[in-house]
Amino acid sequence: MIKLDQFLKLLGIGSTGGQAKLMIIDGDVKVNGTVETRRGRKLAPTDIVTVTGKTFNVGDLI
């Protein structure tokens, strides 16, 4: 399991934890098609994250 903000940093989308946090709070991130505003949301390998118009399968990166 990995937290949503950590996953964004791993992708290089949020270069800092603060930047990732702001993207999540602003509603720019979806998990499994639903806007997610909890930066501590734990992601499972089967989850799909969409941010900045790109979609990522969590299981492919962890």
From TrEMBL:
Gene Ontology MF annotations: RNA binding
Gene3D superfamilies noted in UniProt: RNA-binding S4 domain (3.10.290.10)
Pfam family, one: S4_2
Domain of life: Bacteria
InterPro entries on file: S4_RNA-bd (IPR002942), S4_RNA-bd_sf (IPR036986)
Keywords per UniProt: RNA-binding
Stretches assigned to the RNA-binding S4 domain: 2-62
Name the UniProt record assigns to this protein: RNA-binding S4 domain protein
Protein source organism: Nostoc azollae (strain 0708) (Anabaena azollae (strain 0708))
Taxonomic classification: Bacteria, Bacillati, Cyanobacteriota, Cyanophyceae, Nostocales
